[in-house]
Here is the input.
Amino acid sequence: MIRIVTQARLARLEDAARTASEQARQTSADANEAFSQHVQELWNVTDRAERAEATTNEVGVLLSGALAELSEAQQELLRKDIEIRRLREDLSRGPREGETLTVLLHYGEPHTIYASREDAYADTATHGADPDAVWVPAGERPPSASMWRCEAFIYDAAGNGFRRAYMPAPKSVGEAA
Here is the structure.
């Protein structure tokens, strides 16, 4: 088959080739622009994901610290609840015959009441007294003569209350008897 190509046909083919070439360049430019936009979008998404991961790690650390504090607070609350129950039981049973209390006196004035003498001794150390001090009986000295003094009281059911465990010897008034 022989084909005869005329000048007009050749011009149309060249024109069609230029148009196709221009369209290919435009399509390539559009594709490059779209690719560039997708790369930028991928970059932004990756950046947001990395920031979200860092924030998640920070929140995880804060949450673990808060959970540790919560656990500690719950344990403290449980200990206090147990102590409150014990104190309520002690309160509900009331005093028993022969049970003692110790009153800590500061220059003769009542300061605090304790369940035991050892608790009173320990408390004086928090008020500046020497914790290793040897406690001696007050004897006949007046209570106001001692900075810290412990007085024991015993529950007396017949007297419906506590009475002093140590009663000083009565002194005669004016030597009359």
